[in-house]
Structures are given as structure tokens and as C-alpha cells.
Write a structure and sequence with these properties.
This protein has 408 residues and is mostly beta strands. It has one domain (29-407): Porin. The chain is 8% helix and 52% strand. A hairpin with a 2-residue loop joins strand 14 (272-285) and strand 15. The longest helix is centred in the first third of the chain and has 13 residues, at 5-17. It starts with a helix and ends with a strand.
């Protein structure tokens, strides 16, 4: 990681950790700790999980999984706040890590244009599914392929500002951000492809890659570091939110990490990754909600050889989700499709794939802070690169999970 990014995050965490000391001196501060914990049992097919350096599309391959997100929100006085979250994920090693750490600027009450912001390490506002506490899921255990990728490869360290107002009586918002720490975004997507799982990258963490093609052997590290600054360049994203009617929220987001494709440090390549996303949240009836996300982008890495970039893929995915409260809990269904188009050297490194997935989940409240979640995820995909690993290029993945989810 670049020399600037690591000290900056350390200073941020230490500054937030200073809040209890300030409180002891009589300053008007209030510390709050909350979290979400999940314990689940899963069964599924035998294709090797990507966590075990395979190309499996569904889940982490673990039979018993445990996870927790613990958040601390120091109130620093006035409009300034903060958030520090730690993740416990039994399927990864190390199993605990720093998830997010940032200062917040709350909007001024009553202002015609309400300004808010974040500064530090955080997920950009891409996922519509992670709307539970501590950026968790509220309707299922496993997010879509889009938001699984966001959780593993699209975390940023930077500054984000949001302005909200009303135009012709309707709410509107604009978010702009500049960031670093996201140079390797695209590594997993290209070499492994899309996957559906509930894991998320933490600061200074590494995630496994499948065996890379011969042309990258000895150059690309066997594990990618998703939160890493390789080239010292800044990326940007922007999001526009509108609410044309009371029951419909629309958003459009553009993202560009501005990576220098020719920079590599300790086996970690900078990828140039950019995408556009459109999203919608619709409430067509009482106790019913529909979510829609569509993403299209491209990611590339390496020098140009014979007019082609060494690694160059386009990617696309979309899903529609419907959730309805039926009294005895909520039923959630999700259908999605995904694809990758390899645009260079397919004879020796074919990263193309296409597939679709279906998810059915039932969430049953047992107590005010305890839910039972039963979920089934089916994924079918065709990826020619599986043949290089001695597998059939077409695979069907089915995973069934029962879990308890507690909030505190």
C-alpha cells in the first residue's frame, strides 16, 4: 500500500479512538456500539469455492459460517461524527479486520441545500441491498453478483460530499467523491469472474485468486489486496438521486478508479476500472418493495501488445428483487444475469463468461433483534477457462442456507 494511504488511515482510527478520552474531560460526546451477527449452516454442490482458489459461483464453500459486524459511532460534537466497523468472517483468514473507518459531516437542519460528507475508508453508495445496519443485508443472506463484487473489490479511501435539496417539490441529491486505495479493483472479476457470496474485503486484507494463466504466472500475486494504493493516482465517482413520485427512488452512478494499467508493486497490478450503474427502489403496494440494479463497465491491466491490452474485459450484470412482508415474515425473490466479454488474447487467457442466478429467501422474526433466515441460491454459468483447470466449462451451483441473524 502506498506510503500516504496507510498512515492516513492509522491517524483516522486513532483520532476516532480519542473520543472516550475527550469525553472523560467533560466534552459533550456520546459513544455508541452496535452490530449484526450471523451464524449459519449451508449445504451445496461440490465445485471448488473461489475462497479455495476455485471458480465456484455460490457461497464460500464453508458448511458452518459465522460472521459479525461491530460498529462504533463516536459523537464528536456539533455536526461531526464518526464510524469505525470491524468484521468477523469465519471463511477468511485472518478472520477479523477493519471494515470501514471515517468521519461524517451531518447536514445543517433547515438548510435549503443540505450538505453532508464522509472522509476515510468506506464503501461507495452503489448497493441498494446493503441497507441494513452496519452496511448489512436486511432481506437475504447472500447479495447479488453486483453487490458481492462491490463488497470484495470496490471499497475506497477518500472524501465524499453529498448535497440534497428539492426541485419543483421533489427530493434530489448529488454525491461527488475523490478516492484512492482501489487500484486492484477488477482483479477478481477478470481472473475469477462473477460470484455470489456474503464476504467483504477489509483493510490490508488479501483474497485468493484461482490459478492464473501462464502469461501472468510469477508476475501476478496469488492473492489480491482489494484495498491497496499502487499508482498514487486519484479516482472519482458521482451519483445522482431523484424521487419523481413518493413510491419511487431512482439513481445513476458513474465510477472510475483512474488506475495506471502499467504499474505493479509486489505482484499487485493497478487496473483501470470504470462502470455506470442505474438503480431503482419502488414500493408498488403496502409491505411490498422492488429493487432493480444494472451495471455495465470495463476493467483492464497491463501494457499493450500487438495492439491489445494484456488483460481487457467488459462486464455487465443486472437483477430485479421483490420482497413482501406476508405477516409470518418476509419472502424475497431475486433474478439476475451476468456476463464478461474478454477482448484480448482469448486463445491463452479466456476470461469470458455468462450466466444467471435465482435466489429465494424467507426472513422470520423470532424476537425484536433476532431473525431466522432460510435461503436458496441457484447459479448456472458458462466459463471456458474452467477447462484449463480440468473442469466442465458449464457448471450449476446450488446452495441452501439456514441462519440466525441477531442485531444489537
Amino acid at each position: 500500500m502506498a506510503k500516504v494511504l496507510r498512515p492516513a488511515l492509522i491517524v483516522l482510527v486513532l483520532a476516532l479512538a480519542h473520543a472516550p478520552l475527550a469525553a472523560a474531560r467533560g466534552l459533550p460526546l456520546r459513544d455508541q456500539v452496535s452490530g449484526v451477527a450471523t451464524l449459519g449452516v449451508s449445504v451445496g454442490d461440490n465445485e471448488r469455492s473461489w475462497v479455495d482458489r476455485g471458480l465456484g459461483k455460490a457461497g464460500s464453500g464453508e458448511t458452518v459460517t459465522a460472521g459479525a459486524i461491530i460498529a462504533w459511532r463516536p459523537a464528536l460534537g456539533g455536526r461531526i461524527g464518526g464510524l469505525v466497523t470491524a468484521d468477523l468472517q469465519s471463511a477468511l483468514s485472518p478472520s477479523i479486520g477493519l471494515d470501514e473507518a471515517y468521519f461524517t459531516l451531518r447536514p445543517s437542519p433547515g438548510a435549503a441545500v443540505r450538505l453532508s460528507g464522509r472522509a476515510g475508508l468506506f464503501f461507495p453508495p452503489v448497493s441498494l441491498e446493503h441497507d441494513g445496519s452496519e452496511w448489512s443485508l436486511s432481506r437475504s443472506i447472500t447479495p447479488s453478483a453486483i453487490n458481492s463484487w462491490v463488497a470484495e473489490e470496490v471499497k475506497t479511501a477518500g472524501l465524499e460530499l453529498t448535497a440534497r435539496t428539492t426541485v419543483t417539490g421533489r427530493p434530489m441529491g448529488l454525491t461527488l467523491a475523490a478516492f484512492q486505495g482501489n487500484d486492484t479493483s477488477g482483479t477478481l472479476l477478470a481472473f475469477r469472474g462473477w460470484a455470489l457470496h456474503d464476504l467483504r474485503a477489509t483493510w490490508n486484507d488479501t483474497l485468493p485468486l484461482p490459478p492464473v494463466p501462464t502469461m501472468f504466472a510469477g508476475k501476478q500475486a496469488t492473492r489480491t489486496r482489494p484495498v491497496d494504493e499502487v499508482d498514487g493516482r486519484w479516482g472519482v465517482y458521482g451519483r445522482l438521486d431523484v424521487k419523481p413520485i413518493d413510491t419511487l427512488d431512482l439513481s445513476l452512478l458513474a465510477y472510475d478508479n483512474n488506475g495506471d494499467r502499467t504499474t505493479v508493486v509486489d505482484g499487485q497490478y493497478a487496473w483501470r476500472t470504470r462502470f455506470l450503474q442505474a438503480g431503482a427502489r419502488w414500493s408498488p403496494a403496502a409491505r411490498t418493495e422492488v429493487l432493480f440494479q444494472i451495471m455495465q463497465g470495463e476493467t483492464s491491466m497491463g501494457p499493450r501488445i500487438q495492439g491489445l491490452t494484456v488483460a481487457d474485459v467488459g462486464f455487465q450484470s443486472a437483477f430485479i428483487l421483490m420482497s413482501r412482508d406476508i405477516g409470518a415474515g418476509a419472502i424475497t425473490t431475486r433474478l439476475e444475469q451476468f456476463s464478461i466479454d474478454d477482448r484480448s488474447f482469448k486463445d491463452s487467457d479466456n476470461n469470458a463468461e455468462h450466466g444467471w442466478a435465482a435466489t429465494l429467501a424467507w426472513t422470520r422474526p423470532l424476537r425484536q433483534t433476532l431473525d431466522l433466515v432460510i435461503e436458496g441460491v441457484f447459479v448456472t454459468s458458462d466459463r471456458p477457462d474452467r477447462a484449463r483447470l480440468g473442469e466442465d466449462r458449464r457448471q450449476d451451483n446450488l446452495r441452501l442456507t439456514t441462519a440466525l441473524r441477531a442485531s444489537f
